[in-house]
Write a structure and sequence with these properties.
about 300 residues; alpha+beta; 2,3-Dihydroxybiphenyl 1,2-Dioxygenase, domain 1; 2 domains
């Protein structure tokens, strides 16, 4: 698949994981996905930031956790044109600016936000670093998703901040959409809509940018959160390898609509989803919120 060269504003563009022991996380994810790493901070720095690469393209990153910071987690970044303007929109929509906008050398400018339910996410204003250049491959991000108890409130918030709308799927599930995103994708893949239709994707799916999942009522301790999904050639092999490397399988490999999936926690507790695309599973009923159970 061609490498991504840019993201339009409002599209998730990058992921990184905050880790108490970044070197241990590098060993885990390198062994799990075959990532190669580039240390952009240098060994003399107190903070570490390892860019994960697949075939020379950027796929994500492992960062050192600040002292007294949150537990190990995966972060979702959304590309924006102006991160300071986005911060104002977040405040106006009832969210919180967790970390004020700041420059990341000449790579870009970012901020950390929380939506009204407390789900945290980042905004990225690109300069030299656009975000992930490798996506939708084994070991690369192929989805980001919001888990929430207040779907209607989330629609109002993310609609105001990013202009997102939603697409209702058969069975009642919903996905976040950005009007015009399909037009952008079709610039580099003129057969994109045709291929989606032939695969049985619902009308409007070309504009999907993320998933939205209601947190089940029987999971009162699960907070609202964003999750990250990586592509996998074999979800069962990922679960087995993660266990071998010291991780924990939270949700064993299972069949779900369009995919076979598993939910894994790395040795520090950061959770993620791994899925293998299985077109034959398109008509399966959705499982009961497996991603939310991974928080």
């Amino acid at each position: 698949m061609p490498k991504r060269e840019r993201y339009i504003p409002g599209v998730p563009c990058w992921v990184d994981t905050i880790q108490p022991d970044p070197e241990a996380a590098v060993a885990f994810y390198g062994g799990l996905f075959g990532w190669e790493f580039r240390d952009v901070m240098g060994p003399e720095s107190e903070n570490r930031y390892f860019i994960a690469q697949i075939g020379g393209g950027n796929a994500g990153a492992v960062a050192s956790a600040p002292e007294g910071g949150p537990p190990a987690t995966w972060n979702t970044y959304v590309s924006v044109e102006d991160v300071d303007e986005t911060a104002a929109k977040v405040r106006d929509a009832g969210g919180t600016v967790v970390t004020e906008p700041f420059d990341v050398m000449d790579a870009g400018r970012m901020a950390v936000f929380a939506d009204p339910e407390g789900a945290t996410f980042c905004a990225w204003q690109p300069q030299k670093h656009i975000g992930a250049t490798v996506v939708n491959e084994h070991g690369a991000v192929n989805f980001n998703g919001l888990n929430t108890r207040d779907v209607d409130g989330a629609k109002g918030f993310y609609g105001a901040v990013f202009g997102w709308t939603t697409l209702t799927l058969d069975g009642g599930g919903e996905m976040w959409t950005l009007p015009g995103y399909g037009d952008h994708l079709e610039e580099s893949n003129p057969d994109m809509r045709k291929n989606m239709a032939e695969a049985g994707a619902p009308a409007g799916f070309e504009d999907v940018v993320a998933s939205i999942t209601p947190i089940a009522g029987d999971q009162p301790d699960v907070p609202a959160h964003w999750d990250v999904t990586f592509g996998a050639d074999d979800a069962d092999a990922i679960a087995a390898k993660a266990t071998e490397l010291g991780g924990t399988v939270i949700v064993p490999p299972m069949d779900a609509p369009w995919v076979r999936m598993t939910v894994v926690a790395d040795p520090a507790g950061a959770t993620f989803i791994a899925t293998k695309f299985v077109p034959e599973n398109r008509d399966l009923a959705s499982p009961s919120d497996p991603a939310a159970s991974a928080a």
